[in-house]
Amino acid sequence: MPAEQAPRREVVTGDRKAVRRPAGRRTQLEIHEQTPLGAAYVRSLMRSQLRTGLAALAVLALPVVTLPLFLGALRSPATTWAVLGFACYPVLVALAWAYVRRAERNERDFARLVRGAEHPHEPPRRAPLPPPRADEAPHSARLPARPDATDRHGAA
């Protein structure tokens, strides 16, 4: 019969802290499993993208509707061709650029929401450094001395 072993005790050096799960994992799970909450998250992204597309369409419709009136008032075929050949494209490129930037920002905001970042302007938190091993010198002792560092008495 094996010898009885005493119960093993662990040494506690601090208070127990609750382990907090990252909020983003739960949100990703909600979306992946297509729960009602996950569907609401996806619908919010789709609504914001739809609003962005409709706003771009409205901005595009204004010049398209007024362009025939403008060209009719010019009464010059050369100016009409110049406007149609050159002046329209910078407006279209600027509109497309603004639309793509807004759509990408919608997706970044959604990804941030899914990851669980409550504060978008706060930098991501880093894991704390592990304590130094007993056989290792403290971090400050491992740093090389700066050549311009001197003590109070002027000695390096």
Structure in a nutshell:
The protein is mainly alpha-helical and 156 residues long.
Helix content: 55-70%
Q: Strand tally, please?
A: 0
Poorly predicted parts: none
**Rg (C-alpha, Å):** 32 Å
Q: Which H/E pattern describes the elements?
A: HHHH
Report the β-strand fraction as a percent range. under 5%
Give the CA-CA distance, first to last residue: 67 Å
Net shape: elongated
Note the total helix count. 4
Sheet/helix structural class: mainly alpha
Biggest sheet: strands, sense, closure? Answer: none
State mean pLDDT (0 to 100 scale): 75
Tell me the layout of helices and strands.
Layout: H1 23-32, H2 36-74, H3 77-115, H4 139-142
Helix pairs in contact: 1-2, 2-3
Structure characterization notes:
The protein is an all-alpha fold and 156 residues long. It has four helices and no strands. Helix 1 (23-32) packs across helix 2 (36-74) and helix 2 packs antiparallel against helix 3 (77-115). It starts with 22 loop residues before the first helix and ends in a 14-residue tail after the last helix. The mean pLDDT is 75.
Keywords:
0% strand; 156 residues; mainly alpha
